[in-house]
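Please, structure for the following, as tokens.
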Amino acid sequence: MVRALEDFPAALTARPLVLDGGLSDQVAAAGLDLSDELWTARLLVEDPGALVAAHRAYVAAGAQVVTTASYQASFEGFARRGIGRAAAGRLLASSVGLARAAGARWVAASVGPYGAVLADGSEYRGRYGLTVRQLERFHRPRLEALAAAGPDVLALETVPDVDEAEALVRAVRGLGVPAWLSFTVAGGRTRAGQPLAEAFAVAAGVPELVAVGVNCCAPGEVGGAVRIAAAVTGLPVVAYPNSGEEWVDGGWRGPAAGPARFAGDWLAAGARLVGGCCRVGPAGIAGVAEVVARCGGAGG
């Protein structure tokens, strides 16, 4: 069922909502290989049923908002696999349909940064040597394809710097679909080193944006970022960090704290949409769902 576009913003304002966890982690847990520059978008071509199963696991865990497998998808990336523009557009759109097929209450169409499409880790550095206008031209076609598929919201996520945030804010204009803007952060700054107040200011007063926040970061980064985001923009805040482990020398190291441990504090600070990113699976989201329910978000 396709909802009216105002439904998601209204729901987000009314009560806290539960976001899903790391799609790639759930797919990998099923034994599928994602060692490809398309990452989870590879399965849009090869095994869409696996994506439905992964989404469904998060819905069963209590996720009310499910993000699509389009984070690393682009016309340019599909072209390198010999997939033409029309077929690539259909694949991008199919990511929304697959999330709907899993029974998601709300579907967030994932729009990853330019660096994700390069598949070289540069989404955690930003500063690609491109202008804001060049980045806008890259993002706009994929945003148009996703918006045409009727998601409830566009998730502009894992944004590493202010330049790309400005490009995405420009690119989302006039699409008729609400969006959230989420930075990846470290040390209380964007990955490119800008102050968070400067980064979140990009979202202030933008009518298309219904939330702003952080993802794909350590849980300890979230609390301060939530408070800054809420103060600078006045918007609901989205928070979906990693498990707490760190990626070191090609593997995850360190203890996994998980978002559920901190979710109550984030909600008290202004977060309205809480979930997980890398290494947060259905069990972690079930824990978040319990916290959100206690804080008045049950039944979303």
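The chain has 13 helices and twelve strands. The longest strand covers residues 153-159.
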